[in-house]
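Dear support,

We are seeing what looks like truncated structure output for some complexes. This example has two components. We would appreciate it if you could run it in full and send us the complete token output so we can diff it against ours.
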Amino acid sequence: MSRGIRLAVVGATGAVGQETLKILQERDFPISELICLADPREEGTIIEYKGEAHTVRAASPQQFKEADVALFAVGTEVSQHLAPLAVESGCTVIDNSYAFRLVDEVPLVVPEVNPQDIAWHKGIIANPNCSTIIMVVALNPIHQAAHLTRVVVSTYQAVSGAGIAGLGELEEHTRAYFDGQQVVPQVFQHPIAFNLIPHIDSFVEGDYTREEMKLVWETRKILHHPELKVTATAVRVPVFRSHSESINVETESPLTPQQVREILSNSPGVIVQDDPSHNLYPMPLFTANHDEVFVGRIRQDLTCENGIALWVAADQIRKGAATNAVQIAEMVVEHNYY
Amino acid sequence: MSRGIRLAVVGATGAVGQETLKILQERDFPISELICLADPREEGTIIEYKGEAHTVRAASPQQFKEADVALFAVGTEVSQHLAPLAVESGCTVIDNSYAFRLVDEVPLVVPEVNPQDIAWHKGIIANPNCSTIIMVVALNPIHQAAHLTRVVVSTYQAVSGAGIAGLGELEEHTRAYFDGQQVVPQVFQHPIAFNLIPHIDSFVEGDYTREEMKLVWETRKILHHPELKVTATAVRVPVFRSHSESINVETESPLTPQQVREILSNSPGVIVQDDPSHNLYPMPLFTANHDEVFVGRIRQDLTCENGIALWVAADQIRKGAATNAVQIAEMVVEHNYY
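Here is the complete output from our reference environment:
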């Protein structure tokens, strides 16, 4: 038998699914058998993996009997339905959707932050929301050093958060704008070219969107810090792949910007890009297609005693989704947690 | 003699200058003589105003002897040099640059906020920074109702802040992106198409940019609130004309989001667009070419007792610059403050 596990990728034709396959190849993930699954409409699509052709099959409970681990890169409703069936079939699921993230018995994991939580999974491990992953990779080292008490975050989120269709709509809308054509938004609520839309996911409570509340709920769970005060404003911007975030944090103990720079420079998955004298700071155009979370513009927050302001950018499809899931899968395999 | 004053527009060929002329016409500003001035390189350019052709002249101290009021829409260095000479020539200057904004003897005015400060001018009245104007129009009514103590703001600033050249660069860079051509940034530090640049104006202190510190210094002066705590992150976004801002405020007295909505609905220069159930909130594409500051996404800040989060957008060239200057000029004329 060849080295590795039998791995299913569910949603293999989507933006995150395709990136997942790319990352599995890049990282030489130990696979003995690759099973590409997707919506029945995608059945028969050919996907190349390490030079071999794989035919996409319609995702169904049956398929999971042949897999050890399944990476789910599909919507919440599909995950809700299919992931428990996969677990019943003996498969360990790493789920990218919102379906199980806040379920008590499901660990919500960012490998740089809370890898220990993988150990107690009961079949499903949840991959957090993209903007949350990016934020906690940057904030956890600060939290470990000085204990976070408050986070105020405003996001600048790329269209890739809405998948391949989102990427297409930004391109189409932009071309239409130049051609003087009217556009009819399909993916987003409003035209996205040369615009900003302060509305991601649906409105849930107190006129916050679910995207904003994910930054509250998921951050608390990942950091094991249920009292952490977080407030967010989530905004869609006309950028293709990387999310950016303007974050103001308060900590129990004081930290200077220089200390934060040093702490982050020695933290896994973080690249500090913070040299104003050379116009160096994270920008979404240049953090796209990377796996790290880039942090810069580190300053004292001028409004409070122990406050730090920072600016973060990272590829939404990679670290915000696919890379994080593959990292979890690597740990699952390494420690035989499946 | 015809009704009105002799008005000079300095920088008449620039983005703000052109918009100023448009707004003067729209508002039927009482002009007996219009004097269009600009850089010597622009001399001879013909500008149409109310159906009449005006020849642009090179701005020089001499010209101001023929004017009662001068609207300066030029860079800080030109204003620094020319505005005092205009005042010496008996002209009242309304200056759009940064040159005099923080000078104690110069009022810094947003007509909806501190019109009373126009009265004590000594020749120069300063027009605030665009992002500051937009923010204080939204925040002053909250301040009057509940006393502001803290402001955390992240901006999403349009390229129009860099003038006609900025508008051109976004268009060019976007077209080049589609054509697969390399771009060399001229106006901005980095490519702006499908990107975000967390760097506006130069870096000044504590690794803050001057644009960010303007939001601190100018807000305090306009609101007559020198102790107000403000911290800002200023980011350039690929949007043409309107600036947007994500703002978290704290107040001494409590206010509910509904109270804030009511207060702002009755405030001059503000339009409340805040109906999540109908996907209604301010967006820069739709606030462009308007004079009002649009406010929405009004919510309780989840991290503090008396906190409110809001999202603001307004046309940077109009209310952020030209309209505000013309409003000041109208008050100067109405009250004979020249």
